[in-house]
Amino acid sequence: MQRISLSPNFFLDEFTRSQTAERFGHPIEAELGSTVFNNIQFLCLTLLQPIREALGPITISSGYRPKWLNDHIGGSSRSDHLTGLAADIIVPGRSPLDVARFISGQNLGYKQLINEHDRWVHIASPGPDIMPRRQELTIWHNGQQNLTAAGLHSVKELREQALRG
Hints:
- The structure is a single chain.
- By secondary structure, this protein is an alpha+beta fold.
- It is 32% helix and 22% strand.
- It is built from five helices and eight strands; from the N terminus they run ββααβαβαββββα.
- The strands form two sheets. The chain has a six-stranded mixed β-sheet with strand order 3-4-6-5-7-8, with helices on one face.
- Strand 7 and strand 8 form a beta hairpin.
- The radius of gyration is 16 Å and the shape is globular.
- It starts with a strand and ends with a helix.
C-alpha cells in the first residue's frame, strides 16, 4: 500500500492510526479531497512541516479523530481533532514545554498551543483563511482534577504554586 504524502515529511497514515480504533476494528479514514484530508494537509504544510524543519523528527501521538473515537476517549466535543485541524506531538529528545515555547517564539499561525501534562504538545490550526488566535495554555492535574492555566508553564511549577496557595 502506497503512503499518501501530505508534506515533505508527513504522511496521512500518521494522522489516522489509533490503537483504540484498531482494538475496535474501525479503521480511521480521511478520503483524498475531503474536508478532513484538506485540513490535515493544511495543518502539516503551515504548522507541522516548519516545526519539523526546525526541530527534527516529530511523532504524532494523536491526529484526526472521528466523532465515535473522540467520544470513546473522552475528547472535547469541540476538539479540533474532529476536523483534522489538530495534532498532539512529541519531539524525541525535547521536553514538551521546550517544544511549546519554541513554537510560541516562531511566527506560526496557530489557533491553539497547549502543553498537556508536560507529556505532549497539542497544536491546532484555525484552518484556511481564518485569523490565528495564538492561544497558549497548560493543562495539568493537581491530584484531584485537570486544570487549565493561561500561558505555557512547567506542570511541576504549577503544582508547587498550588501547594503554596
